[in-house]
User: Fold these one by one.
Assistant:
Number 1:
Amino acid sequence: MILITGHVILAPEHRERMIALGAEHSARSRGEAGCLAHNCHIDVENPDRLVFVEEWADMAAVRAHFAVPASAVFVAKMRALSPQPPVMRIFSGEDITAKLMG
């Protein structure tokens, strides 16, 4: 499983537009092959921070996601609207819930 976390700082004058773009991107991404989850959230400790949490079946699915033209358009729009560059981290992991929870 591939886990992706990221965030972007919301500019006050673009806040509603950026939140809408994030929600649209997550909804579209959930329809892609290999997407297990894709959500955006407002950080409760910093309401000007839009956080993304994604789960993908494998790197092939992530690469396909990054190749979707709408994904590149989304990133470009967020970069243009935010006062800071977006941050993204990609992790390879294993779901060990059952091992820990019995």
Number 2:
Amino acid sequence: MFAASDVSQPSQPQRAKSPVSSGVVGMLLFIVTEVMFFGALISAYLVIRAGLDEWPPWGQPRLPVETTAFNTLVLLVSGLLMAYSRNLLQKNEFTQGRRWLGFSILLGTFFLISQGYEWVELIKYGLTISSSVYGGLFYLIIGAHGFHVIGTLAFLIYAWKRLGASVNPLTPEGLLPVQLLWYFVVCVWPALYVLVYL
């Protein structure tokens, strides 16, 4: 009879670690749906604009092209700082990475506040949702992007706080899904700017 220690036990199969986290996969699927959403908005805008003789319609205030160009640059720099922050966090330089993430969030907040001020001024000059199809499409498309900025900034602020937590802090990989969403928000804006403002 064999002793229990002499009997070879079948080895348990090791689960291979997935190269991509489920959070990243989920966020990528969400971003695909958002690409389709903005694609639908852009398509509707192009079809309606092509069907009208004059665009923008006569009597509607012109959009602040130069101010929004500066805001576009601010948002793009925010995306670059986000990438720099990620690079630092992956090198375990958490203090510096968290600091640059904070700067990225601040620039995103500046963009949001500046765009909100632009809306207030345009409403004063008579561009409202009900003033024309032009106004309705402007607020629909730019407003949809604005809501994405608000939601993503809220998640980023929460993540920024969690990175500095003393108990159960957020890891760089845990931060990646919301960073991907910010990259999407940043990258879709120049296309909207060219389409709507120029």
Number 3:
Amino acid sequence: MRAIAAVLLTLFSTSALAALKPGDVAPDFAIEAAQAGKDFSFSLRQALEKGPVVLYFYPKSFTSVCTVEAHEFAEAMEEFAALGANVIGVSSDKIATQREFSSKECRDKFPVGADPDFKVINAYDAAFKIPVAGAMFANRISYVITPDGKILSVVEDSGAKKHIQNALAVVKRWRDAQGK
């Protein structure tokens, strides 16, 4: 089933430009999340009190590109932490799936949020529908959000690497501009 979903995601994903742009106010949210296999409530507002937040949306836990992306974010977490940035991934998977994904693929390094009702995904205009199957997923979009709640960067790309590289570069530039 996962293999079929991965093929459908690759073949039929339609990519529209994200409606939210740099300079827009990021929609505030709280979401059920998991890190290191443990559930908690992730609050964007609370996370922003500590520094910038990298919010990335991905289609489905345990699919090929989503797994690679989780591994690459996990490998970069020391760099993000050194810059004072938090990272959270969000998909439409349920919390039980995110609990397992957070341990196995995120390597206990960062949280993933469960958004089966698409509340956060829709607020960030990150939903897409597979035309043939009619299934809904989160599109692969990443946002860098500054502590004042503004979107600093948006990347929409079907590959994983660009999201991590861009987020690190943007957070570094932001930190430098802040004189930190």
